[in-house]
Q: What sequence folds into this?
């Protein structure tokens, strides 16, 4: 969270969109894991899930503290309704969580997210990718996420907070960090409120789409290769 925001501000210090660089898009990241297949260890998936939830939670807390005056309850009703539905489904005993995830995850990854992407593309994006906003966002996501996550796991291993045999390895953390660089929904929501002009929002959209493509490709390839190495050991 911190590294992406700092890198974004270092490249584009005048931007108001630095908070958009912090969250991790869970649906996009899980789609990347789906490309990896069954070669990935369960610990890696669990780590990515926890990372995405924590990233989004704290990113929205920071965003709410800074831009709280621009938020309106009426705009949040659909989100609150979805959260309430998710909580309610989790309390129904006859529904198996694992089975529910198997059913909903492909629907989210291959239908809901693409529809949202198409909607955003129609809203417009900048074809000039050398501007500070687009480059800053790209560097923040593709580089900042990897640095932050890899450093955290390295410290955790050094301090023996993680079991070297059962926990996520540094190589796996790098792959998760690359995959976590994929941005989409939360970053765009933050951008729509924080952007100072339609042109700045278009530049952010370009960075969001490029970071998602680059991160999913590089992250899934890295984790697939790591899965093969782990299987051969």
A:
């Amino acid at each position: 969270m911190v590294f992406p925001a700092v890198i974004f501000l270092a490249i584009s210090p005048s931007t108001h969109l630095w908070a958009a660089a912090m969250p991790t898009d869970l649906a996009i990241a899980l789609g990347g894991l789906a490309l990896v297949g069954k070669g990935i260890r369960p610990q890696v998936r669990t780590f990515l899930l926890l990372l995405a939830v924590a990233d989004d939670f704290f990113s929205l807390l920071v965003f709410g503290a800074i831009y709280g005056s621009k938020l309106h309850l009426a705009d949040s009703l659909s989100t609150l309704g979805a959260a309430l539905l998710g909580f309610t489904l989790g309390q129904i005993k006859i529904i198996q969580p694992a089975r529910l995830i198997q059913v909903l995850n492909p629907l989210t990854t291959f239908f809901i997210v693409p529809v949202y992407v198409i909607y955003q593309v129609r809203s417009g994006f900048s074809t000039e990718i050398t501007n500070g906003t687009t480059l800053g966002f790209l560097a923040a996501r593709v580089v900042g996420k990897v640095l932050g996550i890899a450093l955290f796991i390295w410290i955790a291993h050094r301090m023996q907070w993680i079991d070297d045999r059962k926990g996520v390895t540094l190589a796996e953390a790098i792959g998760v960090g690359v995959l976590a660089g994929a941005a989409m929904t939360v970053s765009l929501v933050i951008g729509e409120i924080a952007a100072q002009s339609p042109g700045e929002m278009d530049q952010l959209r370009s960075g969001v789409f490029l970071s998602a493509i680059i991160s999913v490709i590089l992250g899934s390839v890295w984790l697939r290769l790591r899965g093969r190495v782990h299987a051969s050991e």
